[in-house]
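Two entries, shown back to back:
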Amino acid sequence: MEAVADGETALSRLRTDPPAIALIDLTLPGMSRLELCRSIRVENDLPVMIVSAREDTLTVVAALDAGADDYVTKPFVFEELAARIRALLRRN
């Protein structure tokens, strides 16, 4: 697992060394997180999971419409997050 500091770096890394899954925090600095999600979806078919403290329906729907495969709100239980990641990886 590798963490990056902003959306532009994330896209660059995805192009050169794509991971098995993208886990995006909606508080990531730089480009719009939803734009990052859309860009990932256009360029790559890897699973995308959004992690955010925001749990309002409009934000969740916007993230899913932008191409996210799942959305997890903070705080979360690590075992649940791990199970959701395993489920997404099974689909690929």
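entry 2 starts here
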Amino acid sequence: MTDVGARCPDCAPRRKLPQFEVGFVWLLRAVGAAAVVGAAVGALWGAALPNTAGFFTLAIGAGVGYCIGESVSIATNRKIGRQLQVIAAGGAVLAYVMHNIVAGYAIVPSDDLWGGIALIVAIFVGAGRLQI
């Protein structure tokens, strides 16, 4: 039995939907998009708003995550999957590190509670954009 009725296994082999088939080339494109957009958005965040705190930081984290998730989605022709979610999360971490470098902080400051929360929000939003 298939989704469209009874078919013999030889005539209608089941295969994954094309949006779930993420090959090596698509993964490379996703890594490139996450790296470029993550670095650019993180540098912009660090230059424009180096000292953000409070709930406004949550909106910044959501925006950063959305930009990275959407860029990975576009670069991979709207494919989705766990590998792409991990790549988007890596792009969000890169954006946070770039923010700290441009703002003149340590790479991972120990007293940056709101920045850590923004990073978590960015990871969830970016990965959520690519969820199955």
